[in-house]
Amino acid sequence: MTTLDLSPDELLTTTRTVRKRLDLEKPVPLELIRECIEIALQAPSGSNRQKWHWLVITDADKRAAIGEYYRLAVEKYLAGPGAAGKLYADDPVRGPIQRRIGDGVAYLGERMGQVPVLVIPCLEAASLPAGNQAGLWGSILPSAWSYMLAARARGLGTAWTTLHMNYEQEVADLLGLPEEIRQTVLIPTAYTIGTDFKPAPRQPLDDVLHLDTW
Predict the structure, then answer these.
(1) What is the mean pLDDT of the chain?
(2) 14 within 8 A of 6, measured Cβ to Cβ
(3) Which of 41, 146, 168, 194 is least enclosed, having the fewest CB within 10 Å?
(4) What is the pTM of this model?
(5) Is the dihedral angle over the CA atoms 86, 10, 109, 20 positive or is it negative?
(6) How would residue 106 be classed by pLDDT, with cut points 50, 70 and 90?
(7) CA distance 51 to 43
């Protein structure tokens, strides 16, 4: 499959959460999704257990049902004080950026069920013990990010979303998940309208870098 002409650094710095520029009309070949997941399976896995599973939802009714749960979760999220669009409201630099993000969240909230492919990486875990859960989730989240990078390289857009987890059991029942299968992130996947994504504004490195001690 043809990939975009991106250097590794360009790929890493221009893989964005895409909301308003997802093409909701253009079908995405399943083979392309399989290719991205094949690459994602090269990500690290704790003790090489590889307890990951990937749900790929293309059925229109199931996408619509998940989309409705997501819409409900977004509605509650946007009403709360921690919504992206309400953060840093008094900051003349970060405030406008946050408001644009808030608009994007609202846009995707109304359209999640229309995205051609929904992908949910899952992890097999019979229990969620106290302690080092970072090690547990660290065995699936790098793989999810690798999927998003592979998708970007192929002209596909994705978004890292977790609000559907407010309805985790409902979605699990809809998809017939066994009890030991844990959902992690919901990744809408579609071709993008244009491919000219750029690095996002970020905090200066020296504001967040700590050498040897805090």
Answers:
(1) 96
(2) yes
(3) 194
(4) 0.95
(5) positive
(6) very high
(7) 12
